[in-house]
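Dear colleagues,

As part of the handover before I leave the project, I'm documenting each prediction I ran so the next person doesn't have to rerun anything. This entry is a single chain, and its sequence is reproduced below.
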Amino acid sequence: MHLFKRSALVSRAAVLVGTLAVLSASAIPLSAEDADAPAESAKAPILEPVEPATPHGKTTAGSTEVNPCFTGNGSIQEVLDACTAFINSGSTDTDRVVAAHGNRAIGLSATRDYAGAVAEMDEAVRLDPKEPNLYFMRAAAYRAKKDFANATKDVDEAIRLDAVRGDFYMLRGLISSDQGDFDSAIRDLDQKVKLDPKSTPGYSKRADLYRQKKDYDKASADYSTVIKLEPDLAKNYIDRGWIYVLQNDLDRAMEDFTAALKLQENNASALVGRGLVKSRKGKATDGSADIALAVKLEPGIIDEIKKLGVE
């Protein structure tokens, strides 16, 4: 479970951070079918804001928050219970009540109770109907439920209230992508990277959509930008390496898979990539050792790579 980290009194805007628990992530968002619900006894780690919100609550310098609802200390159920107790306490601090509903939504989404998460955000929106982050957060919960119509309606409202937040366009792009509307998704991701040019998820997701559209030049260009921004992550080289394989540019693919393996030894996808390139450039058996090791490390890796369109 992910919570925002905030000492003393919490601003309503800080609830934004909770959206990362109901989105998928790479900052590529997390969907209902690919998320493993955490055990109830699991600790609830703290997730720092990507873009810290401007507080408009009454934060006191040097004060220390102890309520598990706001610290995330404890299991998911303990945090849920603490938030419920706070909400039922009759507090008149709207900022903290809204935050408590937001953190209950996060906890419920972590256990795949997306309907419950939506209900919590309904109450948060009722209390603060002009806060765009709350619509954004509810849109993420609707997306997890695959209620794309309501998800789109909420993220549209978030954008109407605040048209310069890249995350809002990112989410709307993901909702369009979920429905197979790649062109609309790419238009929103264009906005995301324009507003957040140093944030990699927009480029990565747009590159993936270009791959699915078989526009490999644009895909490789986006992955190259990701590599410039995050040169020490093996995954970035692997992603671009598979685009080069799809373009049959085997020399550049080999460079990327080799770079990935220097950063992360025994990465299964990079091993398959290196093995495939060896086999295509030489004898069919030249890459068999790499591929065999990859399958031993991750038995399903070949099927995953085939999903990229690699034959």
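The two ends are 38 Å apart (CA to CA). The mean pLDDT is 83.

All the best with the project,
I.
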